[in-house]
C-alpha cells in the first residue's frame, strides 16, 4: 500500500462521517431486507433472492458516500492541499480511489455478513434450499469486493461532479436510470449497480468472473475519464 493511500485512509478514519456510515449502513442493509421478508411470492427461490434490494441499497449508499466526500473536497478546494503536498495529481486521485474501494469493501463485508445471517432463518422457514458453506462464503467475499468497486466508482463520480450534493444526486439519478432501463429492456443485471446483485446470484458459478469483470470494466472506464478531467481542472 502506498503512502498516499495510507494517508487517505487515515483521513477517512479521523472523520466522524466514516464511523457513522460504518455503524448505520449494516442496519440499513437489514431494514432493506424487509422487502423480502414480507413478500413470500417474489423472493422465495434462492437465498440470494432475499438480498437483492438490500445489496442495491448498500451499493448506492457506498457510492454516494464516496462521491459526497470527494466532491466536497473539490467544492471546498481542500483537495488543493493534497496537490501541494504531491504536485502530480494522478497519484493523489488514484490513492483516493483505492482508499474508498477499501472502505467500500469493508462496508460491503459487514453488510453482507449481517444480511446473510438475517435471511438464512427466513429462507429455512420457507423451505428454501440453503447454499453450501463454500458458496455462501464466496458470495460474501465476492459481494464485498463488488461493493468496494462501487466505492471506487463513487470516488470517480465525486471527481467528475465536484459538489457533494450534485455528486450524490448523480449516483441516485443513475440508480433510477438503471431501474428504468432494467424494467424496460431487462438489462439491469449488466449495469453497474445491478451487477452487485448479479455477483451475489452467480457465486459459485462460471459466470461470476464475467459479472465481476464487467463491473470492474465500467469502473475503470469512469475512473479513467475522471483522472483525465481532474488533471486539467483549474481549482481557482
UniProtKB/TrEMBL annotation:
Classify the source by domain of life.
Bacteria
Keywords on this record?
Answer: Membrane, Transmembrane, Transmembrane helix
Positions of transmembrane segments: 20-38, 50-70, 97-124, 136-160, 180-200, 206-230
Name of the molecule in the record: ABC transporter permease
Please give the organism.
Micromonospora costi
Amino acid at each position: 500500500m502506498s503512502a498516499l493511500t495510507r494517508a487517505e485512509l487515515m483521513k477517512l478514519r479521523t472523520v466522524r462521517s466514516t464511523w457513522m456510515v460504518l455503524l448505520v449502513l449494516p442496519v440499513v442493509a437489514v431494514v432493506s431486507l424487509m422487502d423480502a421478508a414480507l413478500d413470500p411470492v417474489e423472493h422465495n427461490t434462492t437465498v440470494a433472492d432475499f438480498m437483492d434490494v438490500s445489496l442495491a441499497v448498500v451499493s448506492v449508499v457506498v457510492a454516494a458516500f464516496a462521491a459526497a466526500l470527494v466532491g466536497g473536497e473539490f467544492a471546498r478546494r481542500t483537495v488543493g492541499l493534497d496537490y501541494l503536498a504531491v504536485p502530480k495529481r494522478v497519484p493523489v486521485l488514484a490513492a483516493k480511489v483505492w482508499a474508498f474501494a477499501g472502505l467500500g469493501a469493508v462496508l460491503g463485508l459487514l453488510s453482507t455478513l449481517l444480511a446473510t445471517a438475517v435471511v438464512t432463518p427466513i429462507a429455512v422457514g420457507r423451505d428454501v434450499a440453503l447454499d453450501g458453506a463454500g458458496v455462501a462464503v464466496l458470495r460474501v467475499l465476492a459481494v464485498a469486493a463488488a461493493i468496494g468497486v462501487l466505492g471506487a466508482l463513487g470516488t470517480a463520480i465525486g471527481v467528475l461532479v465536484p459538489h457533494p450534493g450534485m455528486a450524490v444526486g448523480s449516483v441516485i439519478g443513475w440508480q433510477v436510470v438503471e431501474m428504468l432501463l432494467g424494467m424496460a429492456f431487462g438489462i439491469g443485471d449488466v449495469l453497474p449497480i445491478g451487477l452487485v446483485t448479479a455477483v451475489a446470484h452467480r457465486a459459485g458459478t462460471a459466470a461470476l468472473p464475467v459479472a465481476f469483470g464487467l463491473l470492474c470494466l465500467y469502473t475503470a472506464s469512469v475512473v479513467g475519464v475522471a483522472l483525465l478531467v481532474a488533471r486539467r481542472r483549474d481549482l481557482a
